[in-house]
Here is the input.
Amino acid sequence: MLDKADGQIFTGNVRLVHAVGMHARPAVKLTKLAKKFQAQISVRVAGAAEWINAKSVVKIMAMRAARGSTIEIRASGSDAEVAVAALVDLIASDFPDGT
Amino acid sequence: MQVGATGLAYRGRTASIGFAHGPFVRVDADTNGERVAGNLAEEALALRAAIDTASGQIADLAGIAGGEAAQILEFQVALLEDEDFIEAIFASIGEGNAADVAWRSALDTQIADYNSAADEYLKARSSDLADLRDRVINILRGDGGQALEIPSGAVVCADDLPPSRFLEIDWSGGGGLALLRGSPTSHVAMLARARGIPMVVQLGAIPDVGATALLDGEGATLELDPSAEQVRLFEKRHESHRKSRASARAILRRPTASWRGERIKLLINIQRVDDLEHADAQYADGIGLMRTEFLLTEQGGLPDEETQLRAYDAVLRWADRRPVTIRTFDAGGDKPIAGFTRDGEANPFLGVRGLRLCLARPEIFAVQLRALARAAVHGNLKVMFPMVTSADELEAGRKLFSDVVQRLRAEGIAAMLPELGIMVEVPAAALAIASFKAGFFSIGSNDLAQYVLACDRSNGELAPLMDPLHPAVLELIARTAEHGRRAGISVSLCGDMAGDPRCLPALLNCGLRELSVNASALAQIKQTIDRLSGGGGLG
Here is the structure.
C-alpha cells in the first residue's frame, strides 16, 4: 500500500458478465462513471501486469477484457471508497442503461 | 463476385434485409488535400479547436438521431474527452508534428490495433474511429461540416460508411447501402436494420460505373445499370418478399402445421419470461425450450427457490395445458457465471458445463430442482438436462431430483417428479442414444454441429465449415429421430437450424416432427412447412 497524502487505497474486484466483454458501450459507461469521481482510479484484468487509468476509454478498450474475466479496481483520493463501490456495481449489474 | 451476365451484378453479405431500386451514388472518402502547418502553438490551437468543433457536430447528430444512434456516437465523444489519449497527441505536436499528422497517426494506430483483433465486434469498431479521424481532419482542412449531397432513394456505395455519415444522409425516401468492405456487426449495420434500410456488405471491388442500382438485402446482391429483365426479376423478388411476410402472418393463425399429412408441432424457445410477450408466441404448440440461465445473471447472486418458482409458474400459467420444457442451468462454455462456473478452464466448451457442472455443484442444482418439482404440480412441465454425455449422468440427475421430491413431500410441500429428458448435443449421446432412459430428446443442433465439426461456433473464420447441413450432422439427427420413432419417444430440435427455412426440408426428411424456434421465426417456419407440404420449393 502506498503512503499517499490523501491516504488509503481502496480495492475491489468483479466478474465481467457483459455478453461481448469490455467493448465500446461498457467502456464508455465505465469511463463516464469513473470521471464523476475526484479519486484516481485504476483497473486491470486480474493478474495483468499493468494498471490502467479507468478514465481513459482508449486504454479501457485496449485492455481487451473478455467476458467472464475478473476486473480489479483500485482507487485513492477523497471519494475512493464510493468510487470503487460504484464501479463494481456498474460492472456486476452488466452496465444497465441510463447510467 | 460477379453473378450475372447482363448488367453488372455483385454478391456480398447481408447486413440488413430489404430492397432498394434507385440512383447509384459513390461516396468514397476524399484522400487528397494538403494543409499548411503553422508553428507549434498554432498547431496545438488548431487541433484543440477542431476537436471542439467535432464534439459539437457529433453531439448535434446524436441529438437529431436519438436512441441507439446516440449511444453509438457516445463512443466517439468519449474518445475526444479521453485526456490520456488527447494529451499524447498534443505531446506529438510539441515534438514538431503538424496537427493533422499527429492526429492521424494516433488514430491510425488505434484503428490498426482494432483491425488486428480476432474479434469481429472489435474490428467493426474501427470504422467508428475512422469516422472520427476523418471528421477532425476535414475540420482541420477547413472543409468539415457540409452534409453529403445524396438524392432521395439512392443506393449509396462506399468502401465503408461510418455511423455519423449514415446519419447525415436523408433516408426518408428509402434507399439502400452497398459497402465494398464493412461488416454485418458494425454500428452502421445496426442503424440500417433499425431504420429498415437494406444493406449489403463485403461486395469486394466494384468499378466506378453505374447510374442506377438494384440492391437486394435478402439475396445480398447489387446489380448496376440493370437490364429490363433484371429489373423485372428484382421487382418479382421484392413483391414475393412483401407477400410472404403478409401471408406468413395469416398462416400463423391456422391451428396446426402439417407436412405430407403428418402433424408438425411448432414450439417456441424462450430466454426469459418476457419473451412470451411476443405477439406470435400465442400461436405456438408449447414451449420447446425455456432457458434458465437468465436467473443466474440477475442482481443479487444465485436465485433462491421462490424466485425460480415464480418464473417457472409464470410460464406454466401462460402455457395453460400446453407442454413446457424447461432446461436446467446450462452454465459454463461461453456462459460463465460468477460463483458457479469454473475459472481458467483451458477449453471451456469441453469443460465442466451444463449437467456436468450441476452435478458437481449439487447445492446449487438442488435449489433449481426443488423449484421445478414444486412447479411441476401446476402444469404440463417437462425438464431436460443439457450437455449429457453418458446415461449415468442422466441417472445421477434423476436420483437427485427424486430425493428432492421426497424431501419436499416430507416437508409437507406439494411436489412431483416431472417427465425427464435430455438435450442431444454431445455426439456420444447421439451415437449411443438407445442407452438413455429418457422421456424425450431435444436435439441442440448448435452445440451438436460445433462438436461434430470440431468448429468453435464463435469463431467467424470457421463460418464456412460450420455447416449444420453437413451429412455428419444430419446423420446424427436422423439416427436420433429414428430411435425416437421406434421407441415411441418424442424427439424435437431446438437449435438455430429449426428456425432456418433452408434447413427445414432436411430436418423433415430426417424424420423430425417437432421443432422449437424463437417466436419471431414462428410465422416464417409455419409458412415454409406449408409450402413444402404443398410440394413447392422454398420460393
In short: Residues 1 and 9 of chain A are 7 Å apart (CA to CA). Helices of chain A lie at 24-35, 57-62, 80-92.
